[in-house]
Amino acid sequence: MPTTAPARQRKKTSSARRDDGAPIIPILARKVREVEAKAQKNKLGPTNRVKFQVIAFLVREERARVKEDEALSDSSRAELLKRLDGVATILAKTAARDTSLIQLLEADQATTPVARRMRRDWLLDAGVDLPPEELVIDDAPAATSAPAVPAVATERAVRPVQVDARIESNPFLAPDAARVREAHQPRRQLDSWELMGPLYKSFAQGAGGGSATMPLPEVPEFDRLSPRGLEVMKHQSRFLESVREGHRRFLLADEPGLGKTAQSVLAASVANAYPLLVVVPNVVKMNWAREVERWTPQRRASVINGDGNDVDAFADVFIVNYEILDRHLGWLSEIGLKGMVVDEAHFIKNLSSQRSQNVLALAQRIVSTAGEDPLLMALTGTPLINDVEDFDAIWRFLGWTDGTKPGPELMERLDATGYTPADKAFYPAARQAVIDLGIVRRRKKDVATDLPDKLVADMPVQLDDEFGRSIAQAEQELSRRLADRYRRIIEARGDRGLADGEIDEDIVSLVANGELEESRAAGTDGTNVFSMVRRIGQGKAALAADYAAQLQRSVGKVVFFAKHIDVMDQAERQFKEAGITAVSIRGEQSSTSRQQAIDAFNDDPEVGIAVCSLTAAGVGVNLQAASNVVLAELSWTAAEQTQAIDRVHRIGQDEPVTAWRIIAAHTIDQRIAELIDSKEGLAARALDGAQVPEGDVESVQLSALKSLLRDALAA
């Protein structure tokens, strides 16, 4: 859709520049500082990456213009080029912090509508007379149907034998081109505004805005949905009434343990959204099939495994895990799906991953072929891991945005507020506009008041053997390496007026980011933050297992979480030696084996401990037969820790839950635990409207490295 700069901005003087040899330079200097500040906080989302790119090619454009401007004196030209070099230096420094930006430095033109619009607005602000063709920007793509299968997935595509029979009995619908055209209606006052940044900001500043839940109908007088012997809870019933009233797109972000699976299964029944596709982590495929049978016994579910040779193509619900979705995109896009549920939707937050691209491509295909508004649901109790821009992929999946601008429905709601991002009132209004599209977030303490309390207790342990001393030595070596790099940079550039004992935080960030990039490349080889945490986990394994065994003897069933396989192996050996029957829940298990282990833990009184992978069993698993959790190793995120604990603290639990974190005292382990706790405020502020301070959103790994470096410099 064409967008034109506001008339007041086009009334410029006849000269190319005004009152300065290059008035665009102050604008570029201000914008590059904004990007630099975001990079220091690890907040470089899509909007700021575009801004970085636009600054880079405007610097090149301006440098070329200054060199060719014969009206400039040599001294003026040298001064302007020096100022441009200053902007370019900050760009390079920022790219050193985030190496993914380096490729953006190579762009020599604005290639996207968002970038072209940004360039246009900055040049107009600088007083540049632009030709008419640069004032009007067309960002409307041709009305084409969504590709059925991304090119990268075609090589792995499979086609179960029954699929053709189903398609012949119910041919898939052709793309609805009218809907595509409808999505590009002209907009109004917000046409020329960049809105994604302000939308994210509206959630980052969510304090005081209330819980992120759309208005829901009251509880109906009669429960018309539950099969015999089951009953939906009030919060579930209100959600389902909104589906009955016609709402079809949801981010269901209830806290873990409040029955999102049951709500989704019943929502599909209310909306008659069959055939329905459910995309899930591998660990919960069997549980989803059970829930379909339990809540909608009249419907058939088929779990897709491997190449899908045993798929029932005439089923009502298809359940597939993320890892094999690419093989089945082709035939799934042809059978006329009327709904799609993405469970643990934070799994798709990385838009560069093939997993995310597969989910988004299929959702787009469903929307274009469903004939009527399909049911799209993203389920996650922890949608925000490090940054509010974690919303990006989920909003794209639901069609609320396309990553660069709001979708037509959201745009209409934003226009209706009467505000622009220049108005302070825009932000709470924009947050509510997004929420009203279909965000539903309920907390346990509000809707499950009879659910017992949850406590996280730290259990410090001393690693005082030879292994523990080697860990301390490795940590000292890492601290010295960071401090040496910092001092070399300071010596090379000069202290620039630093007071005695003052630390340059920019250099701290630069050194820590460089170390983190090297650590990621090396993994657990050498001496780095990842290898140290791995070794600390190994050092704690025996102590954590011993504590879990003692706990099991005194309180009954215990869930033992670890991050690494060798820690799990060692714990299982100790439990066996202690005469405790344990089951294991790991990523490499088949769905059947995993479900058998879960059932044994919940139902067999002889099974005392479930040894679980923090990543494989931290989502979608019900282990409420226990009320005690031992976290032998720490996660890198608060969200992952919460997910693990909430395998136990969920509907059906009738005892207070205690999670025991085993912390290696006087090591980086203790620092990581503190950082995890400090970062829990993001979701509370953005989703629950809590009045909590806005803290850093950088990763725990980066924060830990910066903390180590500061301590080393202060010593």
Automatic annotation (TrEMBL):
This is DEAD/DEAH box helicase. SMART domains: DEXDc, HELICc. It comes from the Bacteria. The keyword Protease does not apply. Residues 1-23 are annotated as: Disordered. Residues 241-401 form the Helicase ATP-binding domain. Residues 550-698 form the Helicase C-terminal domain. Gene3D superfamilies: P-loop containing nucleotide triphosphate hydrolases, Tandem AAA-ATPase domain. PROSITE patterns: HELICASE_ATP_BIND_1 (PS51192), HELICASE_CTER (PS51194). InterPro entries: Helicase_ATP-bd (IPR014001), Helicase_C-like (IPR001650), P-loop_NTPase (IPR027417), SNF2-like_sf (IPR038718), SNF2/RAD54-like_C (IPR049730), SNF2_N (IPR000330). One of its GO terms (molecular function) is ATP binding.
